[in-house]
Amino acid sequence: FPSQTVTGNFAKVIHGLNTNQLTDQVIQRSKRMILDTLGVGLLGTSTEVCHKVAQYSKIYSSDLSSTIWGHLDFRLPPLYAAFVNGVAVHSMDFDDTWHPATHPSGAVLPALIALSEAFPQKKKISGLDLLLAFNVGIEVQGRLLHFSREARNIPKRY
C-alpha cells in the first residue's frame, strides 16, 4: 500500500516476530553477544564513570528494582539500573560494534535485563523470549541506523 508509512511497516514486521523464527545460528550468535556484553559490563563496573553514574542514580527509588551488575546488594529502579549497566558496558569501549559505528548490545541488553528483573514472579519471561527481545532490539537499532542519514556520515566526521 502506498499510503503505508515506513514506520508503520517497520512496526508491523517487528510486532509479528516470534521465538519460532529464531534459527539455531541466531540463537548461538545472540548467546555469544550476550555473554560478551555481560563480561564487558562486569569489567566496566570498576570504571570511574560507572561509579559516578551509580552514585548519581542512588537518589532514585521505586517499588520496582533491578540489579546493578556486579553488586547484588545494589538495586535501582529499572530505568536507572539499565542506565548504570549500559554505562558500565560502554565505559571500556570493548563492546560489540558494527559499521557505521554503533554498539548494539550495550544499549539493548541492560534494558532487557533490568525490565525482566522487574516483572512479577508469575510473569517471568523465558530464555527464548529474552533472546527474541534481544534480537528485536538489535534489529530495530540496525534498521534505524540504516535509515539514518546522520549515521551514514559518522565516518566522514571523524
Automatic annotation (TrEMBL):
UniProt superkingdom: Eukaryota
Annotated signal peptide: none
UniProt GO BP: defense response
GO molecular function, one term: aconitate decarboxylase activity
Cellular component per GO, a single term: mitochondrion
InterPro entries per UniProt: MmgE/PrpD_sf, MmgE/PrpD_sf_1, MmgE_PrpD, MmgE_PrpD_N
TM helices/strands, residue ranges: none
Domain MmgE/PrpD N-terminal: 9-151
Pfam families: MmgE_PrpD_N (PF03972)
Family, as annotated: Belongs to the PrpD family.
Official protein name in the record: IRG1 decarboxylase
Origin species: Leucopsar rothschildi
Top-level taxonomy: Eukaryota, Metazoa, Chordata, Craniata, Vertebrata
